[in-house]
Write a structure and sequence with these properties.
10% of the residues lie in helices and 54% in strands. It is mainly beta. Among the domains are: 77 residues, Ubiquitin-like (UB roll) (Roll), CATH 3.10.20.310; 121 residues, no CATH class. The strands form four sheets. A 16-stranded antiparallel sheet has the order 6-7-8-9-10-11-12-13-14-15-16-19-20-21-22-23, with helices on one face. Strands 2-5-4 form a three-stranded mixed sheet. Strand 9 and strand 10 form a beta hairpin.
């Protein structure tokens, strides 16, 4: 355990070194032969609902600065990354011998339901389905109220509120979540201990306060409470306390760094996050920890050909870690080529590398239809071909990390972007013995 913990300490030190090196990095610092513009003033238009400061706080420049053309492009993508607009234009003009940077936005539709279907273990008998109802930007401050209702195999309800500009002057943000889940046990170890299948009931709430240090850096702290009800015959490890019900208080600390251009589908920049969560505080003999970090880098290679890679770790440690809080591959995180193969342990390592090339890089699509708001029929369309390789493993704290045991997959795919809303991915992946599988999903790979 001591040797393994030291390894994770070294991972954390390396992570902080990477972030420190890039802490104040200018994404456009290597550009040569640029055209530069002085900034006498900034003018925003088209924001009928959105408060102007929500847009201006994304900028890396201010009046009195000098900016390059590539910096203007970077800032345009950062504004678009707010996911509030279907189109953003950012350009310099000269009026009365003054240089003005104009920002023109077209607001998206902010109220929409999104249906979804999830399949567990590749089985049609384990379908969860429902609706994700979003109300974004309802006071023009980039607030997001979301309700998720899921039925079927794992019934689920969530009410989530996010306000990244709770106190604009102090750069404070707020997040709140309320969750209810009836979850079928996904641990094979728990199934063997109990002697069969069973369900957990989770009632959870969490509140987080975030401090935005600048456009790239954010720290956060939060508290949470979980009520977890296990099966009728309680066993240690199936619950943390060994009783039928766990009541768990949590403390969460985190840090995020994000220098990406277009956050949804980046071509350049770095995203990294680290978190520590302590659970239980010794109450009812519950006392364990979660630690994780995620590092992603995005780089242009030649012209429109770009590459990205990701390395993520989840580490659990403490006196008695309940099996419902173990790290799993095959559910939320998986190796493409092994999406239906589930494994569990204290720790998870996962890495991915992708290259992508656009068939259509950026098409501002808009069509006028009767009785339908124009915002609902407008989007930024992109179509990308990609090739990828994944590798991952889960293992326990007493086990040595064995690279020969990693699950490795590779394949190719097609991603259709409909920004700022979502993406659709079609992928075909092979595992290391050459067996293939077709993957279909929404959202972004990373």
């Amino acid at each position: 355990m001591k040797m393994l913990s030291n390894k994770f300490i070294f991972f954390a030190i390396g992570y902080f070194f990477i972030v420190t090196v890039n802490l104040f990095a200018n994404p456009d610092s290597l550009i040569v032969k640029e055209q530069f513009y002085s900034v006498d003033s900034i003018a925003v238009s088209g924001n009928d609902i959105t408060e102007e400061y929500i847009i201006l706080r994304e900028l890396t420049f201010k009046p009195g600065d000098i900016v390059s053309g590539s910096q203007l492009q970077f800032n345009k993508e950062r504004i678009f990354s707010l996911r509030l607009f279907t189109k953003v234009e950012l350009y310099p003009v000269t009026e009365n011998e003054k240089s003005i940077i104009k920002i023109d936005v077209k607001e998206s539709w902010y109220i929409y339901p999104i249906p979804f279907i999830r399949r567990q273990d590749g089985s049609m008998s384990k379908l969860s389905y429902g609706i994700n109802f979003s109300f974004k930007n309802f006071r023009g401050r980039n607030e997001h109220l979301r309700t998720i209702i899921s039925l079927g195999y794992d019934p689920f309800f969530a009410l989530v509120y996010l306000n990244p500009a709770l106190d604009y002057k102090r750069n404070l943000g707020l997040g709140f979540g309320l969750y209810f889940l009836k979850m079928n046990n996904k641990s094979e170890v728990a199934k063997r201990l109990y002697g069969g299948d069973f369900r957990y009931k989770f009632y959870s709430t969490e509140i987080d306060l975030a401090k935005r240090l600048n456009q790239f850096n954010e720290i956060l702290a939060g508290v949470g409470f979980d009520y977890i009800e296990g099966p009728d015959s309680p066993l240690k490890r199936i619950t943390a306390s060994g009783e039928k019900i766990d009541r768990v208080i949590s403390l969460i600390l985190g840090y995020n760094y994000d220098s990406r251009d277009l956050k949804q589908f980046s071509q350049n920049g770095i995203f990294s996050s680290i978190y520590f969560k302590h659970k239980g505080f010794g109450l009812a003999d519950i006392d364990y920890n979660l630690f994780g970090f995620d590092f992603r880098e995005y780089r242009s290679i030649v012209e429109d050909l770009s590459a990205r890679w990701r390395f993520t770790v989840r580490h659990t440690f403490g006196s008695t870690i309940p099996l419902y809080d173990y790290s799993f591959l095959g559910y939320d995180e998986y190796v493409r080529g092994y999406s239906n193969q589930n494994s569990e342990g204290n720790n998870l390592l996962l890495t991915s590398i992708e290259v992508s090339y656009p068939v259509i890089k950026e098409w501002d699509f808009s069509i006028k239809l009767p009785l339908i708001p124009r915002q609902l029929t407008s989007a930024r369309i992109g179509i990308y071909l990609s090739a990828f390789t994944d590798a991952g493993q889960v293992f326990n704290n007493h086990q040595r990390l064995n690279f020969s045991n990693f699950s490795t997959g590779y394949g190719f795919g097609l991603t259709i972007l409909a920004l700022p809303y979502n993406a659709i991915r079609f992928e075909y992946a092979f595992n290391k013995i050459g067996k293939g599988e077709f993957l279909f999903g929404t959202g972004f790979s990373f």
